[in-house]
Structures are given as C-alpha cells and as structure tokens.
Amino acid sequence: MRRQWLFATVASTALVLTGCSPDALDSGDSADNVTAISTSLSPPAAADAPLLKTADSPLGTIAVDGEGMTVYVYNPDEENSQAGSCDEACLRYWPAVTSVTDSPIVEGIDAVISTVDGPEGSFQITVNGKPVYRYLDDKVPGDMLGQSVGSLWWMIDAAGNPVFKTE
Fold first, then answer.
1. Pairing mode, if any, of strands 113-117 and 123-127?
2. Domain spans, the chain
C-alpha cells in the first residue's frame, strides 16, 4: 500500500511539472489551468535610451531591443488592436517589450512605432501595429531561438515586417 501511494505521488508530481514546462506554452496558446506567478516584462530602458534598434543576423538585418536581444511578433496578434493576445501564461515565456513612455525612442527602424497598454501598467511597444516580445530562452544578444516557434512567432526586419526565413 505504501508503494502505491509513493508511486501515485511521484507520478502526479511529474505530470504537474511536465504541464508547466516552457514547451507546453511556446505557441502562446491560452493555458486555462496554469496560474502565472508574476507577469514577465522586458525591463524598460531609461526614457532617453533607444528601445528598439537593428542588428545583423544570419537571416538579415533584424530588430532588437535596447539590450540587443531579438524581438518577435506573435502571428495571432491583430494589427492596430488595443492589446496583444499573449495572455499571462504566454507572457511568462514571451515577455512584452515595454517602455516607460508612450513615445519610445528607436534607431534604424523604418516602421510605424507606437504603444498599447501593456502588462502591469506599462506601455508595450508596437511595430506596424503589432506588439513586440522577447523570448525567454534567448539568453544573449544574437540568440534567435524564438524564430518560428509553433509557426506563430517571427523576428521582424528593419521595416517591421515578419522574417519568415529559418535558415
């Protein structure tokens, strides 16, 4: 009897941990049974620092945040909507790129830059009407691990267009 309880406890714990893995939420789909501990934000830069700029990558010139980290758009986000569709569970793995002002400074980006109300009272930056995000697994400038995740997440070029290349 004791073995059965031990096995049941271990199996239950494994199932819970598997459901909370990043791969379970990479697509950005809603996760009704997941409660986010805190909403992740890309740390806002100072008001006078560029929040978006360009960088060279193996796939061409792309947009990056002020720290040089690759930024992405989420395919299901509608252009010019008042908010992104990446919910709290999604934002744990895809932090919003935010600004402390509603007029973010950019360098080298030739696109329409604006903001929408972001998580936790921030201003989320939009490029050509689509909110931009970072990917949690991108650890250093130049990482592009979020490219094409779930065929829903795409880097953007200097004109704000999604980059659909993967190689």
1. antiparallel
2. 2-163
